[in-house]
Protein 1
Amino acid sequence: MAIMRSLKPIAALLCAAVLTSCDLFDENAVQDITAPNTPASRIKFHNFGVNSPGVNFYADDVKMTAISSTTGTESTTGTVYGGLSANGMYVVIAPGSHTLSGRIAAAVDKDLSISNAATTIEDGKYYSYFQSGIYNATTKTIDAFVIEDPMPSGPVDYSVAQVRFVNAISNGTGDLNLIATNTTTTTDYPLGGATAYKSGSAFVAVPPGIYNLRAAYTGAGTNLITRNTLSFVGGRSYTIAARGSTATASTLALDFTLNQR
């Protein structure tokens, strides 16, 4: 019992030094383990603005994306035309009202905002920010828009792939239609119907397989853009986005992005 008595002063000193009280030894004490919850909302950033400089993306004044160089410092390249930030992954964003922007990453005009869009982020939802249109080098501005990514809910269905279409071409002559043709069955699958600039279709279920894609204006007899031999995997969700300028055929493309599921 002498040993037990000698330990009591040591326990009291440790309690005072570390916890400032001995509540830890009270079996009825309540331990506070609460911590800030990670927001459940997500957003993905695309630089689809023709002739745009490389940018970093912001929500209000919070930098959401940047690229590190081999020296560990921030790259002045940023996300360039045709690129997605964060390796195409969604990043966490708090629900609420935000002004999203793309800001120049280069040393010249560093952090100058060239695109912006105000939006309201809802809890638990996914979104995409598209820097789009054609860069105006005089005003140093470019277009942008935000759309919700209505990810399919419920258990994953591995018997189909989910595909949706986004129109990010600002100077088109009408709504665009995207058709996916299965290279094995030759079956055509319309992906969302006529889609206006700054809008996207719902996700459409298609059988897994290899597809050729073609985008054309409503009623047109020729295709504006084509892309071949894309694989749609069952249980995955994809976004096909038309980007570029109709005045410069070399900039036109159908971007193929895997959405998180």
Protein 2
Amino acid sequence: MILASQSPRRRELLRLLGLPFDVTISDVRETPRTGETPPELVTRLSRAKARKADLNGRRSALVIACDTIVALREGPAQAEILGKPRDARDARRMLRRLRGRSHAVYSAVTVENPGHAATTDLVETALTMRPYADAEIKAYVASGDPLDKAGAYAIQHEGFDPVERIQGCYASVMGLPLCHLARRLREWGMDLDTDVPTACQTHTDHVCHVYQEIVSP
């Protein structure tokens, strides 16, 4: 099993499945196309990362790839896509835009398994940010933590703790919708000894209210 991502958060979550895996890179440009919606963008990028993963000759490997973006709705049919910030100034801009507002986080996880058709699960989570102060934004950005994260924040960051409310999958906001992935792997006959919802909630210290509808057949 190969994870096509350098994200430490995705590695951290994938370890909860209790299965051995290697990590590789996938060189994919993450620029949105003209008119592309947030769900279309994360789905396309997730599939491209799986397809372009450097397998180093391991053609029989199962490949897992994921992409995550933040979308701030600006109207009935418009949304501003917030990917990873370009620099500290861009991170501050994103955090000010999100402050006190609701937005959506989209994650798409693609699994390519030899002998099966590649599958992609798209997950949407709704969040509302708390009204954090400018001084908090400044200190958080100075820590460097936001610079490699979509929307310039980590939901799990204890010092900043930016999210006031969440409706949906917490792990998906971190970057890997773990229960969706586990469901897909079990459908393909993989033996998972781990109680994934319990492991995820224990690890994230978050009580999940949606896992039953995800893992139920």
Protein 3
Amino acid sequence: MNRIVLENIAKKYVKEWIFRGINYEFKSNQAYVILGSNGSGKSTLLQVISSFLTPTKGIVKYFSNEQEIAIEQMYKNYSIATPYLELPEEFTLMEVISFHRKLKPFYGGLSCEEVVQIMGLTKAKDKILSNFSSGMKQRVKLGLAILSKTNLLLIDEPSSNLDAAAIKWFQNLIHEYRKDRIIVVCSNHIKAEYDFCEHEIVMEDFKEIKEK
């Protein structure tokens, strides 16, 4: 997949428009940030882009070398890390990585051990995730998403629960694995989360409108 086109996208819950009138095109080898305050609809837009949510109005089209990709095939093409994504906390880290690897291969055929090392969590590889700190869990989410060999990488508020060293780790990992991908990041105007992005979508430009 090398192109995503949003045509007059709008999303409404009950009678409240979260956003509407979004026309945009995402291209491979480019990084985009969706900026907005809490409740502005940026996470909802991210889920629409992923095909997880259907827009109330408009259409999303996905293309690979100008051949349109069916929505039901989209799950194969993207990886995602979000604060609301749940990890199987009864699994050990190695079990989680091994399970994920069966669904989506890692770049360069990385082994489970290599993925653990890249995450910086070697000492915790046999611990169950329920015993992980919030920052460790965020490393797992980001590591799985970024290292997966996918054409579309979606990340919502990547610095959540990360300290300064972990934010630097995230930035370095994105830099290393950004080639040949469309990257979309949601941020509440935290520059460290998106300073690698070339393009901005500001949710306040598509403010909520209530129907009478």
